[in-house]
Amino acid sequence: MPPHSRKRAILITGASTGIGKEAARHLTEKGFSVFAGVRKEKDALLLTDQSGGSIKPVILDVTRKADILSAVNTIQNETGSSGLYGLVNNAGIPFGGPLEYMDIENIRMVMEVNLIGAISVTQACLPLLRKGHGRIVNISSISGRIALPFVGPYAASKFALEAFSDSLRVELRPFRIPVSVIEPGDVATPIWEKTASTINQAAKAFPETAYDIYGPIFNKINTITTHGIPAYLIAKKIEHTLSAKWPKARYVVGLDARVLILISFFPAIIRDWIISLFLPQYGQA
After folding, report:
1. What angle do CA 40, 46, 50 make, to 5 degrees?
2. Overall pTM > 0.90
3. What's the structural domain count of the chain?
4. Residue 222 maps to a domain
5. Is 98 helix (H, G, I), strand (E, B) or coil?
6. What's the burial of 110, exposed, middle or buried (CB within 10 Å: 0-12/13-18/19+)?
7. Are the C-beta atoms of 71 and 61 separated by less than 8 Å?
8. Quick check: is 280 in a domain?
9. Which residues span the domain enclosing 107?
10. What is d(CA 17, CA 43) in angstroms, rounded to the nearest whole number?
11. Cα Rg of the chain, angstroms
């Protein structure tokens, strides 16, 4: 019997850093057999080395059909008749800035990774999930419940991921495959710092008027730092969702996320006013 078929097998996408990497480590410690999706060979080697070989990395760019099919084939060969017990769609990229000046290709890439990627991996994994009496955990964001300014494409992708999850949950009900969404607030990972760098690079192509109009916003973006709750708390919530007899449809994680959920129920005029209080003054040009 292959070693990875002796335990409940889990596939986690976007496992090279942040939430995905922490979830892979935590779930392995809890006795799951973890297949960790990473985009680069060097990340696969690093993950293998850091885990002492207990985590099995698979090359998986969720925007590449060939990667998805190869990863699923690897899992199928190693799990045999046991199938896949859990799919954690974690791969995601943020992107921010004024929508007026965003390159449409950057917006398209956010959708490709955060939404289409999750759908593509889910479609490919469903036969294995049925075989393994498994479940699906989609890592969304509080931005999937309340759309904040200057992260429009990211929020749109997460709203869409939530809708996809709701639809899929009912479709898979006859197969007893639960579908859950985890909605974190700010998490202490490097992702937004990397995003600030990406935005600054993209902003070099903006016209001078963009800085005249949105200058304070660009300055705010440059102050982005790693803060928020530790990724370990999200990993624990993923473990709970995979282990619970009756997992919930949604899990909100973090105090800031809970506050924003409350604000999301306010009338739009009040909600917009509250959010604007946290923005620098801009638009004077």
Report:
1. 150
2. yes
3. 1
4. no
5. coil
6. buried
7. no
8. no
9. 3-190+227-263
10. 9
11. 20
State yes or no: is 85 an active-site residue. Answer: no
Residue 237: which CATH number?
Answer: 3.40.50.720
pLDDT tens, position by position, 11-29: 999 999 999 999 999 999 9
Which residues, at least 6 apart from 156, have a Cβ–Cβ distance to it below 8 Å? Answer: 111, 147
Residue from 85, 154, 214, 251 carrying the catalytic annotation: 154
Domain assignment present for residue 252? The answer is: yes
What Å distances lie between residue 267 and 28, 64, 146, 255, 272, CA to CA? 44, 41, 12, 21, 9
Would you say residue 273 lies in a domain? Answer: no
| Count of CA atoms in the C-beta half-sphere (13 A) of 198 | 17
Residue 189 token pair: 């990972």
Token pair recorded at residue 108:
């398209």
Q: For 226-247, what is each residue's pLDDT tens digit?
A: 578 999 999 999 999 999 999 9
